[in-house]
């Protein structure tokens, strides 16, 4: 059964297919000798895109980072409790934009 929409987005809302974001999967049909012998009839191949490679690299980088910075959590908790915690909306916006730009690259 072919899978046509793996993004969960309805209809054509999925990202258009291009050479750079397409995963290629191939299958060789069995020869007559393979069919007669009962040996494995096909050889499957998969070709991953540069996007998949970047995602794997990002995952490996994230796996090396500590899950929680306990000292930072405690400092924020203390600042909130003391009423001195300040939110820098401009800094947060810059960080969000930077993150989005990294995803595009």
Describe the structure.
- By secondary structure, the protein is mainly alpha-helical.
- It folds into 2 domains: about 1-50, no CATH class; about 65-105, no CATH class.
- Helix content is about 50%, strand content about 10%.
- The chain has 4 helices and 2 strands; from the N terminus they run βαβααα.
- It has helices spanning about 30-35, 50-65, 70-80, 90-105, and strands at about 25-30, 45.
- It has a two-stranded antiparallel ribbon with strand order 1-2.
- The radius of gyration is 24 Å and the shape is elongated.
- The protein starts with about 25 loop residues before the first strand and ends with a helix.
- Strands of the biggest beta sheet: in what spatial order? 1-2
Averaged pLDDT: 77
Number of helices: 4
H/E element string?
EHEHHH
Quickly describe the structure.
This protein is mainly α.
Give a topology summary.
Layout: E1 24-28, H1 32-37, E2 43-47, H2 50-64, H3 70-82, H4 89-104
Antiparallel strand pairs: 1-2
What labels describe this entry?
105 residues; mainly alpha; 2 domains; two-stranded antiparallel sheet; 4 helices; 48% helix
């Amino acid at each position: 059964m072919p899978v046509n929409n793996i993004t969960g987005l309805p209809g054509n809302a999925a990202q258009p297919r291009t050479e750079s974001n397409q995963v290629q999967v191939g299958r060789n049909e069995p020869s007559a000798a393979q069919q007669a012998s009962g040996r494995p009839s096909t050889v499957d191949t998969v070709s991953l895109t540069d996007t998949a490679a970047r995602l794997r690299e990002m995952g490996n980088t994230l796996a090396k980072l500590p899950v929680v910075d306990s000292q930072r959590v405690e400092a924020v908790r203390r600042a909130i409790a003391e009423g001195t915690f300040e939110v820098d909306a401009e800094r947060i916006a810059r960080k969000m934009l930077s993150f989005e730009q990294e995803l595009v690259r």
